[in-house]
From TrEMBL:
Keyword annotations of the record: Calcium, Coiled coil
Domain of life of the native organism: Eukaryota
Gene3D superfamilies, A to Z: EF-hand
GO molecular function list: calcium ion binding
SUPFAM superfamilies reported for this sequence: EF-hand
Keyword Oxidoreductase included in the entry's annotation: no
Cited Pfam families: EF-hand_1
SMART domains associated with the record: EFh
UniProt-recorded name of the protein: EF-hand domain-containing protein
Parts forming coiled coils: 120-147
Domain EF-hand residues, every copy: 141-176
Length: 177
């Protein structure tokens, strides 16, 4: 999830001094969720983002978030410019949530129905699988480079590299990358 959007919305709420708004629950691909809410006390706004990666209550659905967004007060309660900017930033966030819900291997729905301990296990397994795929990709890249170097040194094409061929190709062999 784009953290700059989170920061931007928080700053908007701080600047607009909105009295109280449980604006959004944000689900990131790492399973972290932030509940953003701002409250005004004696004319000063205090905004906080509480983040708990695993031990979470059931996720608030995207539909519920849209309903909360639709219930934002009219311009009588909030300056029009502020309300417009908050709606725009929130829409960007909701778009990100929609994308995650469709594409994430650990989906919003699967986390909803999974106890916190199993959530941690699911996310750990997923990170391990991603690390394994990265290692495999690096291994394939190394093998490809080794084949290219062998072909480069085997000028005669006989499948063998003699000493003269190795000496001629050594600058390429030791080249970085």
């Amino acid at each position: 999830f784009p953290s700059h959007e989170l920061m931007r919305t928080t700053m908007l709420l701080r600047r607009c001094r909105y009295s109280f708004i449980p604006l959004l629950l944000l689900q990131t691909s790492a399973g972290m969720r932030a509940s953003i809410h701002c409250s005004a006390d004696a004319g000063s706004s205090q905004c906080s983002a509480a983040v708990n990666p695993v031990q979470l209550q059931a996720l608030t659905s995207i539909a519920q978030m849209r309903a909360s967004l639709a219930s934002l007060p009219s311009t009588a309660a909030l300056p029009a410019a502020c309300l417009s900017e908050i709606r725009e930033a929130a829409s960007v966030m909701l778009g990100s949530l929609d994308t995650l819900a469709r594409s994430d291997t650990v989906t919003l729905e699967s986390l909803d129905a999974t106890p916190p301990r199993q959530q941690a296990s699911l996310l750990t397994e997923r990170l391990a699988e991603e690390a394994k795929q990265l290692a495999k990709a690096q291994e394939q890249q190394d093998e490809q480079r080794a084949r290219e170097l062998f072909e480069l040194m085997d000028k005669s094409g006989d499948g063998l590299i003699d000493f003269e061929e190795f000496l001629n190709a050594s600058p390429a062999f030791f080249a970085p990358g």
